[in-house]
Write a structure and sequence with these properties.
- The complex is a heterodimer.
- Chain A is α/β, with parallel strands linked by helices.
- Chain A is built from 21 helices and 9 strands.
- Chain A has an 8-stranded mixed beta sheet with strand order 3-2-1-4-5-6-7-8, sandwiched between helices.
- The model of chain A has no long low-confidence stretch (mean pLDDT about 90).
- In chain B, a hairpin with a 2-residue loop joins β10 and β11.
- The model of chain B has no long low-confidence stretch (mean pLDDT about 95).
- The two termini of chain B are about 20 Å apart.
- In chain B, α1 crosses α5 and α4 packs across α6.
- Chain B is an alpha/beta fold.
- Chain B has 10 helices and 11 strands.
- Chain B has a single domain, classed as LigB-like (Protocatechuate 4,5-dioxygenase, Chain B).
- Classes of the chains: A alpha/beta, B alpha/beta.
- β9 of chain A pairs parallel with β9 of chain B, so a sheet runs across the interface.
């Protein structure tokens, strides 16, 4: 069988291992990650976005955080080949995996692929559990990989089994974390190590892997344990232990947040994402600094006395404010979009519309090239559709 | 002891206040919304609330870009309706509950939630429109109100999770206030809407309905949603819905829905109101 072309969405720890291993095995691999940090084999093609990455792919690996899995599926929806198989590999709940299947139901085949062990050790040879209609296609494509187990069950089953495993694995990890922390305090580390080893075998290294792994992967694992607890909650089962394991991981997430680089990365990511929303001027710090004087001019119109001054002589009144010439012109000409571009915030610039006795629909229409009536009608018939308005990247496809 | 007897999520669309102020509630445009409200008002008055904690955001009225508190609590005895450019709304002043407000401020700050204390704060439509929705046209508001003002205009606003946790801190504070008071917590703003830019007018009904359902069924989804998803899905001003999480955090884990109305559109906004009580233990 000819080797399939692979697209890997998300090139973090797991994704980059898969990509490198597959490239070395001779597969054609493309991929994308909004925030690429890993070193990749030079044969791997890095696309411009998720949608581009999947264009030629026979097999797509979705290896992001479960929190973005759905939006990734949306992004690639219209670009993925009909005969492609989309492997949802995130640690999402069975329910979420089914949701992804329904997003892509007319686009391609979705398989539920659960990664059953830590990836760095075995890379692409990590044990996979695969469910979904035509799961066998996965094995056929990757017949040279030794650890693929197919379950004859719908999408969601593999995820379910993985979560069941997590109750044990993450629960034990939580107990070990606590035990070792306590042992240190009580100056009894060797004693505790002996106790743990006597129950579950292994040595110091195994214990350390449990403890360090919990800290290092706290965010991903806490998502996983959230999925576990919500699954148990849905079935009305007790989730006492799983909740405790989740609490323990949350502790490490908090510590992780203390790391300055985590916050910085988060900030950069948001900045990028905001720019991707079409026709939207998010009032970020940069925006706010640019528009400060313009917005404060608008603010002045809250006072009746100032409104009278503005009414008497608009030009003279705006000249009292240290705005840029462009900002003044935009105000005098009531260029609503231009005001936003120059740092205006709608709650402030709308004060000019209030002054003019104009409605929000008038302003909304001006900003989106419609008359006030057309805008009103659009609102009455349910508003502007969100479909096609979520992302510039998707719009361009 | 003071006790939280109800929680409300509610939009604060200025046009709803204007419709009430200008006698337009029986106009065809407004009847779908206003005709639904008596049931909610009855539910609320049956709870015999003494105090309402009203979470809202200021829209360049009491605060401007000069000073942007993330969370501010109104500790005054009296709050004036703000002039938002039309002249102040012709409605009663909002009477505060300084003693409980100071108690909440003190407890929250000791609980490491550093609220800004506002002894003078005009309240704009964010605060007064929900009062109109809850009580209609009255001579005097039938509850005392503690306004809690949240920055959702300047980015970054607090995360939904942070808001939820503030709700928890407020709940703790209220449970230790010695006077017997029935307290209702209202989180306002939303639902999906975008006022600005080429995308203005965006409404996402599917998102809104999920959000409403998840408040009682699976609120972690709302609570851990990040800013970008709120904005992308619910519009740049839909981010206001993080304020509903303060209400949600102040309620118990299990809550029972008592009333809901969702209507598109009120001016540029999907309007939603939903009422909860804690599930009986």
């Amino acid at each position: 069988m000819k080797k399939p072309k692979i697209a890997i969405l998300g090139l973090g720890e797991a994704g980059s291992h898969f990509a490198n291993d597959l490239a070395r095995l001779g597969y054609t691999v493309s991929g994308w990650d909004p925030d690429l940090k890993r070193t990749l084999d030079e044969k791997i093609h890095i696309a411009n976005n998720n949608a581009h990455a999947v264009e030629d792919a026979d097999v797509v690996f979705n290896v992001n955080l479960s929190s973005v899995a759905k939006s990734v599926a949306e992004e690639i929806k219209h670009c993925v080949k009909k005969e492609a198989i989309f492997c949802e590999m995130n640690t999402s709940s069975p329910f979420e995996k089914k949701e992804i299947q329904s997003i892509l139901k007319n686009e391609c085949t979705v398989l539920d692929v659960a990664i059953m062990a830590p990836v760095p050790k075995a890379g692409i040879q990590t044990p996979f559990l695969v469910s979904g209609e035509n799961a066998i296609a996965f094995r056929n494509y990757f017949s040279e990989l030794p650890n693929i187990q197919i379950i004859e069950a719908p999408v969601g089953k593999a995820a379910e089994l993985k979560l069941l495993r997590s109750i044990v694995y993450k629960g034990v990890a939580a107990v070990i974390c606590e035990a070792m922390e306590v042992a240190e305090k009580f100056d009894s580390v060797p004693f505790m190590e002996e106790q743990i080893s006597s129950i579950m075998g292994g040595d110091k290294n195994l214990i350390e892997r449990f403890v360090e792994g919990s800290k290092k992967h706290a965010i991903r694992r806490s998502h996983e344990m959230e999925a576990v607890t919500s699954m148990l909650k849905k079935e009305n089962l007790s989730a006492l232990m799983s909740k405790a394991a989740l609490d323990n991981l949350s502790r490490y997430v908090e510590t992780k947040k203390d790391d300055p680089s985590t916050i910085y990365e988060e900030k950069q990511k948001l900045k990028k994402a905001f720019l991707d929303i079409p026709g939207t001027y998010v009032f970020t710090p940069d925006h706010s600094r640019k528009g400060y004087e313009l917005n404060m001019f608008c603010m002045s119109l809250n006072e009746a006395e100032n409104r009278e001054k503005f009414r008497a002589d608009e030009k003279a009144y705006v000249d009292l404010f240290p705005m840029t010439e462009e900002q003044k012109q935009a105000v005098l000409n009531r260029e609503w979009l231009e005001m936003l571009r120059l740092g205006g915030n709608i709650y402030y610039t709308f004060k000019i519309a209030i002054f003019d006795r104009k409605s929000m629909q008038h302003v909304g229409g001006k900003m989106s090239g419609m008359t006030e009536e057309e805008f009103k009608d659009m609102m009455l018939s349910g508003g502007r559709s969100i479909i096609g308005n979520r992302s510039k990247i998707k719009q361009s496809k | 002891m003071a006790k939280i007897v109800g929680g409300i999520g509610c939009s604060h669309v200025p046009a709803v206040g204007a419709a009430s102020d200008h006698g337009k509630t029986k106009d065809g445009y407004w009847t779908p919304l206003f005709n639904a409200l008596p049931a909610a008002r009855k539910w609320l008055s049956d709870l015999k609330p003494d105090v309402m904690i009203l979470v809202y955001n200021d829209h360049g009225s009491a605060f401007s870009l000069e000073l942007i508190p993330t969370f501010a609590i109104g500790t005054a005895e009296n709050f004036k309706p703000a002039d938002e450019g039309y002249g102040p709304r012709d409605i009663p002043d909002v009477e505060g509950h300084a003693e409980l407000a100071w108690h909440i401020a003190e407890s929250c700050i000791m609980d490491e939630f550093d609220l800004t204390i506002a002894n003078k704060m005009d309240v704009d439509h964010g605060c007064t429109v929900p009062l109109t929705v809850f009580f209609g046209e009255v001579e005097k508001w039938p509850v005392r109100v503690i306004p809690i003002c949240v920055n959702v205009i300047q980015f970054p606003p607090p995360t939904a999770n942070r808001c939820f946790n503030l709700g928890r801190a407020i709940k703790k504070a209220i449970s230790t206030f010695p006077e017997d008071l029935n307290v209702v917590v209202a989180g306002t703003g939303g639902m999906s809407h975008q006022l600005q830019g080429e995308r203005s007018g965006v409404v996402n009904t599917e998102f809104d309905i999920n959000y409403l359902n998840q408040l009682s069924e699976d609120n972690d989804k709302n609570r851990y949603m990040n800013h970008i998803d709120y904005i992308r899905e619910a519009g740049s001003e839909g981010i206001e819905m993080v304020m509903w999480q303060i209400m949600r955090g102040a309620m118990e884990e299990k809550i029972v829905e008592k009333f809901r109305k969702y209507h598109v559109a009120s001016s540029n906004t999907a309007f939603g109101i939903i009422c909860f009580e804690n599930e009986e233990a």
